């Protein structure tokens, strides 16, 4: 379920500025069909981040946070991504922390998304993937939050942001068309 409502004041602009400082352009596209049925897409080859226009501003800002995390954490030239599932877990977890620091509750979307991608990593349980990515996620989120000039209520810890209620699990299906070659493509989608 996509986020509804307005984005926190200045969050879209702040995230867009950080993306642009990384020498990526931000393009708003009409809908998911324009970007392979995704909410956002980071094209490393052409250095473009695309985000759907047909989402509420809160979902758009969260998506920008996700795509910025890909830029910061998954530089393909440096070989920093071992599996697409790991990359999606990391990027969406950073987006959750950025959202939580701004009072946004992204769990209804983030929990099933992260769970589905974590389960796609061969030879690891969902819990192992999340545990193994946790510190990298925390460092990336804190670095982004430190660079944002927006008002935020903490360092992105959902429990410290009043988002500590138990979370139920939803089933999300990850396409089983993933293979080793496609997991390392230069385009990352949300």
How would you explain this protein's 3D organization?
- This is IrrE N-terminal-like domain-containing protein.
- It contains five helices and four strands.
- It has 190 residues and is of the alpha+beta class.
- A hairpin with a 4-residue loop joins strand 2 and strand 3.
- The model is unreliable at 161-190 (pLDDT under 50).
Give descriptors for this structure.
190 residues; alpha+beta; four-stranded mixed β-sheet; 5 helices; 4 strands; disordered C terminus; IrrE N-terminal-like domain-containing protein
Please outline what is shown here.
With 190 residues, this protein is of the alpha+beta class.
Topology overview:
Layout: H1 11-21, E1 25-29, E2 40-43, E3 48-52, H2 57-73, H3 84-101, H4 107-118, H5 126-147, E4 187-189
Parallel strand pairs: 1-3
Antiparallel strand pairs: 2-3, 2-4
Helix pairs in contact: 1-2, 2-3, 3-4, 3-5, 4-5
Main-sheet strand order equals 1-3-2-4
Helix content: 40-55%
Number of strands: 4
* General form: globular
How far the N terminus sits from the C terminus, by CA atoms, comes to 13 Å
* Mean pLDDT across all amino acids: 83
Portion in strands: 5-15%
Rg is 15 Å
Q: What does the main sheet amount to?
A: 4 strands, mixed
Name the poorly predicted regions: 161-190
- Provide the structure class: alpha+beta
Number of helical stretches of at least 4 residues = 5
What kind of assembly state do the chains in view correspond to? single chain
Number of domains: 1
Order of helices and strands: HEEEHHHHE
């Amino acid at each position: 379920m996509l986020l509804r409502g307005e984005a926190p004041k200045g969050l879209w602009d702040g995230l867009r500025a950080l993306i642009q400082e990384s020498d990526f352009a931000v393009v708003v596209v009409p809908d998911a069909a324009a970007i392979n049925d995704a909410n956002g897409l980071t094209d490393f080859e052409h250095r473009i981040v695309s985000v759907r226009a047909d989402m509420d501003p809160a979902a758009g800002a969260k998506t920008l946070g996700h795509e910025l995390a890909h830029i910061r954490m998954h530089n393909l030239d440096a070989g920093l991504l071992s599996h697409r599932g790991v990359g999606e877990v990391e990027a969406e977890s950073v987006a959750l922390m950025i959202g939580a620091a701004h009072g946004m509750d992204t769990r209804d979307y983030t929990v099933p998304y992260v769970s589905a991608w974590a389960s796609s990593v061969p030879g690891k349980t969902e819990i192992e993937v999340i545990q193994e990515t946790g510190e990298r996620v925390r460092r990336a989120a804190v670095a982004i939050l430190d660079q944002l000039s927006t008002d935020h209520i903490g360092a992105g810890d959902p429990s410290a942001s009043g988002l500590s209620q138990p979370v139920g699990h939803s089933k999300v299906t990850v396409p089983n068309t993933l293979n080793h070659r496609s997991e390392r493509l230069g385009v990352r989608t949300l």
